[in-house]
Amino acid sequence: MKNTLLFSFLPPASVLERALSQFKATISAKELSVEEMLDQVHKIQPAAIVVVPRQKITAEVIKALPDSVKIIATSSVGFDHLDIAAAKERGILLSNTPDVLTECTADLGMMLLLNACRRGREYLSIMQEGWRKTYSQTDMLGLQVSGRTLGILGMGRIGRALADRARGFGMKIIYCNNKRLPPELEKDAVYFKNFHDMLPHCQIISLNAPNTPETKGIMNSKSFSLLPKNAVLVNVARGTLVDEDALIKALESGHLFAAGLDVFCHEPDYNLRLRDFPNVFLTPHMGSATVETRSAMGHRALDNVTAALEGQRPGDFLY
């Protein structure tokens, strides 16, 4: 007999097909609110629920779940939205999908870096308005990426993948991490133990660190002031790493040349003041948004559900 499964959002086609064939699956045609999800859970009494980060699985939500639920699998690397302690107390397993979005997010980080340096948003606006005027040798000049120094905060998988891409553009790599990497991972990058010591050397600074008490708001007024003039900020990590008021001041003063941002302090209701800067290239938190990566995330979540219901505990489980 097939186990009952609730997919609380619409997954990519291959994941949908597998879920329907392997489980007695209820698939939502849209991303459910937590309240809608709980209503469905009590109707179908699933053994497993697959969720996404916007669905906050708090202690109150976990308390409200029926005893049928054995596992909650999030189709994401991040798991800040899951109350691990509450789930453990209820005996409900939790899993995430690490390692599947490294290359995809690094690709987007490089896209943001290039568009911020080469005024991509402004060039696009010119073309959308019809162009129709010539530009002189000193108009609309961007920054040459090749040969620049890229500082990376957080040299984990995504940070290292971004560094590899930047090397292809002839960039010099420096980094700050909670510990120095072994030589085979560090390659030619130069290590800085102290973040503020690294900033004066960063012509471009990329944030690739997780949100922790130590990194929250790490790009503040002092940090921006330590960057060289005409530096560029790139953030594909977490919006909370940046003090957005300080960022706006750095843009207004001209100290920052540009920024490329995929994440914001408040999503989706991001600070619209950032939209007003033509030198800020913006994307709506799409680091993992390719067919390949979202499919891999969904299949990984189903792998975890299968393992849990068979009594196994693979490495993706959070406790």
Automatic annotation (TrEMBL):
It comes from the Bacteria. Residues 110-287 form the D-isomer specific 2-hydroxyacid dehydrogenase NAD-binding domain. Signal peptide: none annotated. Its EC number is 1.1.1.81. It holds the Pfam family 2-Hacid_dh. Gene3D superfamilies: NAD(P)-binding Rossmann-like Domain. GO terms for molecular function: glyoxylate reductase (NADPH) activity; hydroxypyruvate reductase [NAD(P)H] activity; NAD binding. Keywords: NAD, Oxidoreductase, Pyruvate. Residues 30-314 form the D-isomer specific 2-hydroxyacid dehydrogenase catalytic domain. InterPro entries: D-isomer_2-hydroxyacid_DH, D-isomer_2_OHA_DH_cat_dom, D-isomer_DH_CS, D-isomer_DH_CS1, D-isomer_DH_NAD-bd, NAD(P)-bd_dom_sf. GO terms for cellular component: cytosol. Belongs to the D-isomer specific 2-hydroxyacid dehydrogenase family. This is Hxdroxypyruvate reductase. The lineage of its organism: Bacteria, Pseudomonadati, Bdellovibrionota, Bdellovibrionia, Bdellovibrionales.
